[in-house]
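hey so i finaly got around to running the thing on RNA polymerase sigma factor from Fluctibacter halophilus. pasting the sequence first so u can double check i didnt mess up the copy paste, my clipboard has been acting weird all day
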Amino acid sequence: MTQGTVVAAADTFAEKSERDLIAAVQQGDKNAYHKLYHAYIGQVYGLCYRLAGDRGLAEDAAQEVFIQLWRKIGNFKGDSKFSTWLHSVTSNVCISYIRKQKGWFQRMFNIEDTDAANEVAEPSSAEVCLDDYIQRLPERARMVFVLHAIEGYRHEEIATMLGMAVGSSKAQFHRAKQLLKEWMGYD
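ok and heres what it spat out for the 3d tokens, dont ask me to read them lol
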């Protein structure tokens, strides 16, 4: 048996095992759900963090994703990979969650949604990684940048997800790129 055959067999077993796990969750098996949660929490949290730009908000959004996953797992028909379906669910739930939280926070503290409110002080460390710069971006520019440059969504998809015009998505992406270039010294 060649190494390629072993890898292919392992991938097939993993896919079958995941399908069985998903089927068990769809039947209401909480232990299977727990396993699914632990298998995907890292990926879900990572996307939520990149979209939200705040650890606490990302943690809450990730939990909301898994609440919605429990409720909507029956909608997964297996037409695509589970990870692809979960990525789409995560993006949509996280964006919706951020909007709700931001609206509540603004109403509670009477904060205006301006660029000045989105400005963040310069980091004190001389060594800053790209993720740190991305987190400094204004919210909409960050969301568009993450969805397009990192997650690979088209501007038409992003426009639908964020409720904006395609041109606005492209403009926010351009703005994000310009800010990142400026902050990283590539002007």
